[in-house]
Amino acid sequence: MNRFTRVLFSILLCSLIIAVPSIWAMWIEDGVPVCMATDFQVDTQITSDGAGGSIITWADRRSGEYDIYAQRIDASGTALWTTDGVLLCTDFGEDEEAPRITSDGAGGAIVVWQDYRSGTSWDVYAQRIDSAGTVLWDEYGIEVCTVSLDQDQPRIVSDDAGGAIIVW
Length: 168
Description:
The chain is mainly beta. 12% of the residues lie in helices and 35% in strands.
């Protein structure tokens, strides 16, 4: 996202907040906790769930290495999935980082990340999660690109047909 787009987005968001003060009445004053696990939660990303809520993903270091988690929040600010989020990839003892997310158009999401499970280079993996918080693809995520050398900093957009377009 370039600087102009970020500034425009900020202006639109502020306008929405000013124009619709009733939004604030639905949430607690200091925000809604998405994850209260120990250690670090970083690199949060968010997408619409298509039902007035959101699905949030992040890299989480509660196990000692970074893993990818997700949580769905409804329009009233209630977490709908497992406390502190759903693990999107069974841990390999190596870092999974830089998650990005897009809606799957069916109440769930597709998340992509860079993964160091090979121990020699970053690769790109993805996972789909449904509206109930069930991981739909392989428990380890699916390979997007695992050729030699690094594949990192993935980006994702919906293909508007239940899938996604992923670049890195």
